[in-house]
Amino acid sequence: MELNVKTLDGKDAGKVSLSDAIFGLEPREDIIARMIRWQLAKKQQGTHKSKGRSEVSRTGSKMYKQKGTGRARHHSARAPQFRGGGKAHGPVVRSHEIDLPKKVRALALRHALSAKLKADELIIVDQLVASEAKTKALVVSFEALGLSNALVIGGTELDTNFQLAAQNIPNVDVLPVQGINVYDILRRGKLVLSKAAVEALEERFK
Length: 206
Prior knowledge:
Shape: elongated
């Protein structure tokens, strides 16, 4: 399929041919949802921790004699039922990662790209280059393209001026093509790809 190419100023810059195997799939929400769950689980730090009864700093001696007091047969003040005691079955440092086959992860990215094209939220620009690192000038360019909430994907190397100008614009993320991912694609309204990014994606999924 063919899609119109725009310049950063919103002018026409010809057409580009997109692969149906990447941008022409019927989006499957279940595959995309599995991928997002995998990404968010991998992102969790898992550094939550509470102390168990073997870790709290309290005496380990028996609280009172076993018989004759009329009270329960307690042993250590470190037990969870006492104030200052250890937490029973509390959180421990662990990894939240889950398994997802590499082929499913690759397929999810293709479905996310197809979903953006189907929703008419995909814009192709000829190149992401700014003459100077001025945020104000780039905001004007984005307004010409109708962008207020977008993920912008460039080639393997990003133009320094463009990257500096875009980093202060709210709700706009800029990534090189190797950083493209399903979660960031779907959390932003529009997806902007440079021609270099399209070529890199088609080479990647060849």
